Amino acid sequence: VHNSLGRYCNEKQYSDAFEHLLIEKRIKYEREKYIPISFEGEKQGRNKVDFIVNDRLIVELKSKRTLLKEDYYQVKRYLISFKKQLGLLVNFRDKFLKPRRILNSQT
């Protein structure tokens, strides 16, 4: 995806291309799955994970100059909410693609 599109597309374009590859390779996935967040029965907002691949791996795609701690915390929240062990944080804006592995120590 990075080689084909380059590093200056938006996150949705990368997500669409990544989804196309998953379909092409017949890999099971869910896209933009919502995590309802509530406190004492009232909804407080919703987050959505970009991809859950093979019901095991959370993939969060970004297209920004630099990743922040908040991006890592976001993936960590998703891992805990979905009770998954491994997440990948991928920033397509980097000159060389360097997916970051994030582990959930609570599983």
TrEMBL record:
InterPro entries: GxxExxY. NCBIfam families: GxxExxY. This is GxxExxY protein. Pfam families: PDDEXK_3.
